[in-house]
Predict the 3D structure of the following.
Amino acid sequence: MALGVCGAVAAQTTGDPRGFRIKQPEADHRDVTEATPPELTMMRTARCIVDDQVEDVEAYLRTVPGSTQEDTAFAKFERKLNRCMPEMDMSSVGNMQRARGTITMRFEHAALRGALAENVLHQNDVELELGRMARGDDGMYVAEKFHGERSGDPSRVFALGFAGCVMGHNADAIPMLLETEPASAEEKSLIGAMAPSFGQCVVEGQTLRLTAPKLRTQIAEAVYYALHDSENSEAAE
């Protein structure tokens, strides 16, 4: 979906005390085929990492996006990521009856962070507090508030700012979004329903081109920051 240019408009936030917990996915992370969407493969791989190294993952999420510290923190669980990468059954390909092949995924830190953040929310049974997610335009700065500084990568700043703002304008829909399967029709439908808020969340002169799965991972990352910003501030003191 291509997003046009529009100035930001303030949204009303609510002090709604309601909160939700998202259900833990039941599918095995190795349960993939050549037809499995890469976003779903990434989500299941991220769950495998979080199951074993949640503290290292949270240390990674505390680093500023695009920083050298991000790469250093990633190295702590890089081997686990490789071990979690699912194998794909190739028995139906050509004349090969029993061969198995390993899936190779290409990804950016931005996509990995979102998948890991969402799985940490699942793993830690974090309550999705609507009041903390309903930040309106203030959501544009949720990543900076969490990290205590702005990323030096403009693309990450804009992406997280947009996702945080969309989160703020659509807090009621976030629990449902994070329970959908990545790259599913349900995910696309929920993201599409958020479209009326997009024009309020782009910076003047900015154009974003996003798919529903990509925006979902960015929203998940913003949700993690929104629900943990006070904890990160205390840890930094």
User: Anything to note?
Assistant: The chain has one domain: 2-11+27-236. Confidence is low (pLDDT under 50) at residues 1-18, 90-101, 233-237.
